[in-house]
Automatic annotation (TrEMBL):
Coiled coil feature spans: none
PANTHER family from the UniProt entry: VESICLE PROTEIN SORTING-ASSOCIATED
Matches recorded under Pfam families: Sec1
Organism per entry: Aphis gossypii
Name of the protein: Vacuolar protein sorting-associated protein 45
InterPro entries: Sec-1-like_dom1, Sec-1-like_dom3a, Sec1-like, Sec1-like_dom2, Sec1-like_sf
Family statement: Belongs to the STXBP/unc-18/SEC1 family.
GO biological process: vesicle-mediated transport
Amino acid sequence: MDLIQAIKLYIIKMTEDCGPGMKVLLMDKATTSIVSAVFSQSEILQREVYLFEQLTSTSSSDSMYHMKCITFLRPTSENISLLCKELRNPRYGYYYIYFSNIISKTDIKTIAESDIQEVVREVQEYYADYLAVAPHLFSLNIPSCGQCLSWDPLQLTRCTQGIISVLLSLKKNPLIRFQASSKMSKQLAEKVKVIFSKEENLFNLKQGDIQPQLLILDRREDPVTPLLMPWSYQAMVHELLTINNNQVDLSHIEDIKPDLKKVLLCAEQDDLYKQNIYKNFGEIGEIMKSLIDDFKSKAKNHQKLDTISDMKAFVENYPQFKKMSSTVAKHVIIMEQLSNYVTKKNLLEVSELQQQIACDIQSSQHTQKIKELIEKGIPDEEASKLVMLYALKSFSKDSNRELTSLIQILKSKKVAEHWIELVHDVMKYQSKIILDNENTLKNAKQITKRFYKDLKGVDNIFTQHVPLMKELVEDLIKSRLKEEQYPFLSDINQPTKRVQDIIVFVIGGVTYEESMAIYNMNISNPQVRIILGGSTVHNSSSFLNEVKLATFGVIKSRGGSRKL
């Protein structure tokens, strides 16, 4: 199961279906991101695609009848309307139309009626309705799933479509399991099941002896992982600089070269990044030093042009040399920025304490250590996140008193009200799940133990915490995932066979740390193939934005939380 290859095969098929000749690729904003995540512009050019356009209401009126138009769109009502407008006044010779998901017969009829000049040669569904971030990771780029701890109907539909697209692109018809304590999880599972029934022919797929499993989880079951400072390269870049559609914005850096203001971080197009994506910060520093030394050596050799042979070697190696130069420059700048943030935000001390709180290590000292770091003047967001982590594991009366004390310290230090409000929001975000779980688990402390694991003998103090998702997937692989907590969406008793293909989807987003955990599990369990996806890929900032929106209209009560 390789998501990037699945998308690539669809795009290649599109370019082949319309035959040889000059082509234009007409896309919407979403499909532009989907294509650019797996193909570089030079790779697309090799497939005779010479023009890229977005379907908008202000599309160019220039006609190029000698070109074939490959139209790749999400099947939204807006896109259908714009496409019909395009077909009524076609700018290209022929149109080959591909939708990234299931399209209704009504929409197909509307398109046919708009094709007055009979320029449409093909209409197909190619199920590439998700962003393939890595071979094992996908995102739907949904920044927030709802409000009042409930679904936004539009986002429920979008998540359903995204999951359906992933399953069809991988040719999987899985058993569906969901998190029993989450209403949103069950609702999404039911929506997916409805599509299975409605599109029975599409899901009439041969699955072999072991049927795949789709596990739908809720981010609210583990709000801790997105709050922790990550130290692997990809996750760290996303946390401190933000990766948006495989791009990192460096324009805030003073006197930066124009070509480095926005850089591409894509494992498919950057071998250095691909090789070191899961290395930790210290390892990356050593690799960069070695790389710079190697680069200096090669640059020095290129200065020697004494003979014709030297000149010939320079000409032959120049493209590779230039590419290496830009790659080195990009990663050195990124590493410099990461290093600056680590120092400026005192992240080594902050992260160590985060891990101690998350893993419940030296718990009696947490309050005092948080106070000491706040007194040191760490940034508002880091101080607040420490208090959030403390709040998420506080259930006793003593802990509540300490939490009140910590919030008062934040206020006395003039921490922005926005951050103090987020402490309460995070508690509301988690507490409803805990309240629901009390029917199946003995008490809140049992739930806490699932979130925060005291790991002994761990060498790296900055990576002690294990995401809950990793434990759940491990339980699923070993057939130990409890059905009362993660039931099948079926009245039929499901066999407890071993699993082979697992697709995990997280409502409320995943993190790159969780992605790394799944990547490592795929390596250590070659008999199992695991795909991870979520409504988005979070860093702590985007996660807290989602928390703010998700808890809007919810007030704290003694019994947990309730809607206004």
